[in-house]
Design goal:
Elements: E1 13-16, E2 21-23, E3 25-34, E4 41-46, H1 51-57, E5 61-63, E6 70-73, E7 79-85, E8 91-94, E9 106-114, E10 117-127
């Protein structure tokens, strides 16, 4: 994979299964990049719909409950947090994607922390 990484925006995150790969939607982020002049920095703050808004408005990705889900980072973050958001606006913090496999649709959110800042990624899913 020789794709060059655009460092002016947060790197992509995907959720993969044995046979498929799903791009997570870029949510809000705060990102700092080095400017052209030495020592110059630019911070970008981007706002986005909350994960439960994405869930109620967006198309759901259907994934079989039997699939094993893996997070795939184009650039490995320093750390990340996983959340599940539901249509009623409630949210839970989880340690693994497996914990989000339920009967109701869930917006999986990954909040990833990098040297340049942090970014949110969302994938609205229905497990069947």
């Amino acid at each position: 994979n020789n794709a060059t990484i655009d460092e002016s925006v947060p790197p992509k995150v995907m959720i993969t299964t044995l046979n498929a790969s799903y791009n997570m939607v870029q949510g809000g982020y705060e990102w700092t990049v080095e400017g052209r002049k030495k020592g110059e920095q630019t911070m970008t703050i981007a706002d986005a719909a909350s994960p439960n808004q994405v869930l109620t408005k967006g198309e759901l990705t259907t994934i079989a409950k039997s699939e094993t889900l893996t997070l795939q980072f184009v650039v490995e973050p320093d750390r990340y947090q996983l959340y599940g958001w539901y249509e009623d606006g409630s949210k839970i913090s989880v340690d693994s994607l497996e914990q989000l496999k339920g009967d109701e649709p869930v917006a999986i959110e990954v909040l990833a922390y990098y040297l340049q800042g942090h970014a949110s990624y969302v994938l609205p899913v229905k497990f069947e």
